[in-house]
């Protein structure tokens, strides 16, 4: 995988082992500095980075109505940086990438 500064990607936040949307800020020989959508900066290696490739029916967790807790569901549709989720209880909503994790 080839990445460049400014790319939007998913990164594996090592504190909870989920994948979150972020932007690559800086790249040096071995490390990639990312900033997650909520503002946390982390330095990773390439194995903790992957393209944002979300497909229908992928398992995902979303923050219902932007709250603090994540709830499991699956992807119904992707439109740019927005994801339509169907939660396990049948509720559906559109969320920006900043409010989902994989």
Highlighted features:
single chain, 102 residues, SH3 type barrels
SS class: mainly beta
Q: How many domains is the backbone divided into?
A: 2
Average pLDDT, rounded to a whole number, is: 95
The largest sheet is:
5 strands, antiparallel
- Unreliably modeled segments: none
Structure characterization notes:
The protein is built from no helices and 10 strands. The strands form 2 sheets. It has a 5-stranded antiparallel beta sheet, with no helix packed on it. 0% of the residues lie in helices and 53% in strands. It has strands at 8-13, 18-27, 32-36, 41-44, 49-51, 59-62, 71-79, 82-87, 92-96, 100-101. The radius of gyration is 14 Å and the shape is elongated.
Question: How would you summarize the topology of this molecule?
Answer:
Layout: E1 8-13, E2 18-27, E3 32-36, E4 41-44, E5 49-51, E6 59-62, E7 71-79, E8 82-87, E9 92-96, E10 100-101
Antiparallel strand pairs: 1-2, 1-5, 2-3, 3-4, 6-7, 6-10, 7-8, 8-9
Structure described in brief:
By secondary structure, the protein is mainly beta.
């Amino acid at each position: 995988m080839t990445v460049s500064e400014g790319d939007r990607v998913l990164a594996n936040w090592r504190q909870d082992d989920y994948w979150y949307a972020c932007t690559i800020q800086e790249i040096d020989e071995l490390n990639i500095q990312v900033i997650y959508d909520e503002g946390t900066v982390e330095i990773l290696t390439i194995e903790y980075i992957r393209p944002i490739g979300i497909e229908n029916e992928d398992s995902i967790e979303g923050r219902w109505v932007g709250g603090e807790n994540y709830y499991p569901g699956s992807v119904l549709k992707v439109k740019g940086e927005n994801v339509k989720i169907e939660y396990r209880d049948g509720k559906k909503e559109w969320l920006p990438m900043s409010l989902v994790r994989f």
